[in-house]
Amino acid sequence: MAAKKILMFVGDFVEDYEAMVPFQILTMVGHTVHAVCPGKKPGDTVRTAVHDFVGDQTYVEYQGHNFHINFDFDEVNPADYDALVIPGGRAPEYLRLNEKVLEMTRHFAENNKPIAAICHGPQILAAAGVLNGKHMISYPAVGPECKIAGANYGEVSPDADNAVTDGNLVTAPAWPAHPEWMRQFLKVLGSTIEP
After folding, report:
1. Which tens digit of pLDDT belongs to each residue from 148-180?
2. 31, 34, 51, 120: which one is catalytic?
3. Residue 120 among the catalytic residues
4. Of 63, 84, 150, 172, whose CB has the highest number of CB atoms within 10 Å?
């Protein structure tokens, strides 16, 4: 397996597990992951949020960890990266307002580079206009937005633990899907894990 260079968009109140777990998994198998945020420099942190399902009509939110930025957003050249990861939480709702984030996202889609997005992460994909005709899923509350953007929206499993791959795009509804989401993304990346 050739190690890949992967870009990850994060921001304040990114979902804790959805930033931490893929960052650790992808690093563990040998890839380089640059976690970036507009307005933040290497060594800065973003505050994360833990979203949990405890019987209310929607998730609850707790303060999570501080997640460290390890690369300068202003220095990112998307052509230098092999893949993109977009975690969920509340960060995508405002990151999608940043035109450079959208331009970078379009670069990955237009060049058929692997993209993994989970939960609210597809809000960025919808705003970038790259979902038309794509089979995908997201957190159910983001589903209408994805459909309006032209996506062929799939079925989210009752436990929100499934993922969907369509070519270069791997999507999932929420952190319970991490095992399946990362398994499918690693396959798209061409990664292998020795037994």
Report:
1. 999 999 999 999 999 999 999 999 999 999 999
2. 120
3. yes
4. 172
